[in-house]
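notes to self, project folder thing:

trying the whole complex as one job this time. last attempt i did each chain seperately and stitching them together was a nightmare. four parts in total, labels are on each line so i dont mix them up again. if this works i'll redo the older ones the same way
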Amino acid sequence: MEWLLLLCVLSPAVGCIINGLFGRWTYRAAGVIGSTFLGISFALAIPLIIYAIQGHIIDYDYYHWIISGKLDVPFGLRLDSLSAMMLGVVTFVSFMIHIYSIGYMGGHKGYARFFAYLNLFVFAMLLLCMGNNYLTLFIGWEGVGFCSYILIGYYYEKKTAADAGRKAFVTTRIGDVGFTIGILFIILYFGSVKFTDIFPQAHILPPMIATIITLALFFGATGKSAQFPLYVWLPDAMEGPTPVSALIHAATMVTAGVYMVARSAPLYALSPTGSLVVASIGAFTAFFAATMALTHFDLKRILAYSTISQIGYMMIGVGVGAYWTGMFHLMTHAFFKALLFLSAGAVMHAMHGILDMRLMGGLRHKMPQTCAVMIIASLAIAGIPPLSGFFSKDHILGEALMLGHPIIWMVGVITAFMTAYYMFRMVFFTFFGESRVPEGLHPHEAPNVMLVPLWVLAVGSIVVGAIFGIKMHGHIPIEHFISLTSPVAFPKVYEVNESLLIIISIVAGVLGIAVAWLSYIPKWAPKWRSWFVRTFHPLYRCCFNLWWVDEVYNCLFCRPFWHVSERFLWKVVDDKLIDAGVDDVGRIAGLAGKAVRILQTGFINNYAYWVSAGALIVCGWYLLKIM
Amino acid sequence: MAMHVLTGVIKFIVAFAVLGIYALVMLWFERKALGFFQIRIGPKLVSSGLEGLLQPVADMLKSLWKEDIVPHRADKLVFWVAPVIGGMFPFAAALAMPFGPPIKIGGSYFYLSIVHVNVGILYILAALGLTSYSILSAGIAAGGNKYSLIGAQREVAQMVSYEVVMALALLNPILMARSLDLYEIVAAQSHHLWFVFYQPVAFVVFLICMFATAAIVPFDLPEAEQELVAGYNTEYSAMKMAMFPFGQFITVLVMSSLMVIFFLGGWTGPYWDGHPWILGFIWYWVKVLFFVFLFIWSWGTFPRYRYDQLMNMCWKILLPISVLNVLWTGFALIVHLPMI
Amino acid sequence: MQYYVPFLMVAFILFAVGAIGVLVRRNFFVVLMSLEIMINSAGLVFVILSYFSGTISGQVFFIFVAAVAASETAVGLAIAVLMYRVRHTVDVTEFSIMKR
Amino acid sequence: MTGIEACVFAIVSLMAIVGALGVVFCRNPYHSALWMVFSFVGIAGLFALLQAYFLTALQIIVYAGAIVVMIAFVMMTIDFRKVRGLSKFVPQWLWGLIISFGILIDLFILTSKMKIDVSQAGKNLAIAGSNTKALGMELFTSYLFPFEMVAVILLVALIGVVVLTKRGIK
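result (full assembly):
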């Protein structure tokens, strides 16, 4: 079974090697090859997940990777309920997106390269999820970071794409510093990085250290999962091809931080402070990103901010200690967010690359199927029962309230309202109303190879929540399943009427949709909108300009760094100290050379004299010693 | 010990005499055969009853009486040393050459070669390799004679090049017999077919190298009369001059015997299973003399190669073929390919 | 006196004579030949010690020494030919292109 | 050493040393080459005395038959009068002599200080009476990798020489 697991993880790597090395000759087959290897991976994942559902755990060290003193880092994989869930989600969603990409990327430059990158990304992601120690996880972590860099910069000839890739890379790297510090602390205190060594004896940690470790790890997660201080890379990451956005920046990679926090549950359980920080940052990010999404006109950027917001939700879930809710939302979100991005991709495909919603409208006649799946996904994310988003979001909010965080609950509910609003604003703007499509563009329905994954994901978006989230036989299946690995950390504080909570969240969702409908569909909607904008002008400006976060970062960090680098590091340190020092060294060497040059006659036999005289002296000295 | 020394001395004297007589007879036979090929009579007047058999003796006497010319600018010592080396080293090579099958006396064998060492083939190759000094010396000592110099250069380059290929060709039978001892190589062929049937490529390569290292006709570039007058021995005369062909004849004999020992089963042959010793002896000499005759035959038959053709053939054709052949032989021996 | 001493003495004398040749001769070819003698005497020491200590490794090393000597000679001769082409002499004291 | 061996030793070592002196002190480099062959034959005799029969043949084939021939041949290809017309010694010849004698004395003292366990002398040098076989077994088992490396060295030298001397290689 452990070899099956290894095969499952390595299968995408094989695809990557084939497409990467022989891409020149695979031509059109590249997409099929890449998808096939991912299909193999998915097929192998099914028995593994069933195995995990039966309650088995695989934890196997394939070989010893680093042995240094007492530290022994194996290359090992672990299959338990948490990673089994991730395995299922990652392989399934990636498989769908691969199939979609065959159609979407058809005819693009570097077709084989694209699939090689995608496969490599899935390989890294599987390594991240399946690793049985923090260093293997870290390799996957860095691997997905690298893959996101090359995939965002996939159109590397375009300056914005290359810049966005670099921004993503550097920003997540800032977070990785924190992650590395966390791992080093773990090595310091446990002498091992294996989960099975760390978690059973986690209670020996002093609370202070536990807080430091959890905060350091979470700082890594903020980078990778685009949480508050470090989320800025994700909207820019939309420069990459749409399947990349769907795969990396919605469904899988950005949730790595959530997975990591859930995986480190025994550590977070030790530190209420750390957990509270996670939950607070999650709540703040959820709200903050939602406000940014309210006024945007760029289709993919709205989705990007919504992703940040939804990951904020997950962070609330894992932060308050109910890890299963975060993971559950991760799973449902993977389905509907992938669906949203892919249908946005279909729209973009139809509109020949246009993403500005002001140039769309009335597309439901042109592409009815895309419109249908888009509405399904929007309903799901807005939290309308019985679609999947409803269950997971409701569980998160309910647990947050019950575990004693009413403010976070409040923020969550308001965010839910805003989510519903901006999602349906997008839907109405794009698919309803009058057509604002420019002359000469003829939007059309996407080809079947793209539509089939869309519908599969749509079905998933509808049913997944209901299957796993409805209470059966006295317990919720997903709660039971995830809690095998990461049980709920903190005791309940309040007893709340669950029906009331459900009603409140449904009302928030419906209200959001209603407001969106009122603002865009009726005849008098434009007037109403302009009145609103005039009245709440400062607020609107803030939202529209994304709270000037990029500018603030620019002034706070980039400019000073740039000035220090130029004025001090370059002009003073480099020119005056280092270069001058190097010059002096060279001058000294030159002088020494002038002195020694007397010996360097250029005549071979003179050299021979020196060599043999040296031999004579060494030999004589040796003789004197032994005498 | 004394017995060994005594037999050694006797063997040496006998071999010296035999080789000397062989050279003289060879000289006569060569002339007669060449005459026959060219539809003329050849030497006849001296001892007319014996078809001019004593002609070489007369020639030798003439050489002894002739004026021994040493060029003024010649390097006297080297000029004198060159023919000595030229006669001596082929003779030294011939010392390790078997003159017939070993004679079984009591429980031990009596070997018909003056030195019997278990690295016999290496000894012969070493001695033949040193022969090139005679030509080098002859070329350099001639005091700036261009013909001598160019002839010597050609011959030495040719010999050194073809010795490489020759050693590679001989490596195949050595590998198959797993010995460097000439007698054991023959013994290895007495149990099954001769090595020529397993190693036809090596046989052909060695045949070509045999002509080239002895500088016999299709490859007698060093002495190409039309271009070089007489090559490295242009300036030589009298007895010194005679030493070079003497060495060459002995080289031919040694080469033929190597050919017979390595590829044609030495003294093994039909109707011989070891005990009528004389039959093995006859088989051996019949084969050897056939190859000696082959040399003269080619002498009278073939036109001469051009020098670049000669070198190209060595380095671009024979060497790769030989290397591949050795690889194949090694492979076949490792996987125990069945002997046919 | 041990009875391996004369053998070693011969090897060392050869080495010293070769060293003299390398150091005092002007002719590049003679220098090369003297170098060969030095190398060969080193190989001789290998063989001598192989015999007297009863291990065959020394003889193996002589094979390596011979191979290295052969390649060294080949390269040396190539240099000689090049030098002759450039300077029209094989005098080692003329081989310097510095101080001119 | 028995009497005969001592005699042979005296002869061959004298050959080797006289040959070496001849190499160093001959004015004519071709004479040096011939003396060198003489010296190498003497060293080959020493090898035979030391029961290294394969190396005896190797010494003559490789050193006398190939290396010296190569040197003499190259001497021939370039103008021999220029090769011969050199004055013999470098100006600093005295220092060379002093250094060489110093090395010789060093080595002699070293020899006198040296202790070798001669209890195994002359053993293990042959398998079933064949020195070649013993040598081959050792060479192709313990020293296989160095042997391959030597092959690489020869190849490198071969290519290097061709590149050095060939005109007009780009």
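what i see at first glance: The CA atoms of residues 132 and 304 of chain A lie 31 Å apart.
need to look closer tmrw
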